[in-house]
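Could someone model zinc ion with this protein?
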Amino acid sequence: MARIFGELEHSPVGSVWVNRKELAAAGVHRPTMNGISGTAAEGADSIVISGGYEDDLDLGEEIIYTGTGGYDTASRKQISDQTFSNTNNAGLVTSQLQGLPVRVIRGAGGDPGFSPTSGYRYDGLYSVVDHWSEIGKSGFRVCRYRLVALTDPAIFHAQPFTKDAVPIGETNPRRISAITTRVVRSTKVSEYVKKIHEYRCQICGIEIMIPNGKLAEGAHIRALGKPHNGPDSIDNVLCLCPNHHSAFDLGGIWVSDDLSVFDFNGIKIGTISTNPKHNLDNQHFAYHRSLWGNE
Ligand SMILES: [Zn+2]
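Reply:
Sure, complex below.
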């Protein structure tokens, strides 16, 4: 059966089910055990958050969600590392990269401030906006995702979709822009860093000309905002081309203390170019490496 993304007509926000079997039968979240419904190839269409993972953090409109795997259901303990090669975990990454909406179902047992007192409840569509890995409370590595409630879920209400159907395109392009998630905000600090490097990528050296100047991005090594809480200071910012910025943010590349650049297989692909006016703090590179298991 084709995986259906978006809100299902028969199950609007607030719909409730007694148990996982009924929830699965409704097609809102099909697996009866797993918290993530999805595969690497297709993306994830739904998740359940119900307090199973000690590292989950439910803030209502924002959820820091833990991946699957390495969990012993008998002892209810994490007993080994989680990886993004697990197809369910990779499914949520695909959802981030493709801007797919994820149905969020809360179960009793989750954060009491946001969870139903019994059974399972559909709470609307969320986007995956970030993923990384870290050492969890158990001492084992866990996969982590930040999901935020879609501010305009109306675009999916009327038209749940499957990925195997032939795309018919979109007559209203504004709808398409609503599901792209990559926004690069410039700050005074990142503008300063870009000027120092004359808008050349510090990894590949490319200089991209556009009609009004040059195109480069200020890449925060340790990301701003929760839960990374990196500073907006020049020692935490690189001047990168959009390709290398994306690759860096998504774990495709990492940087060692001597400023060598490695791909995710550990093969050296270059060296960060430096400038005396731009000191970098190695602690931020160490933090970035820790997110992708390279530390
Ligand atoms: Zn580059």
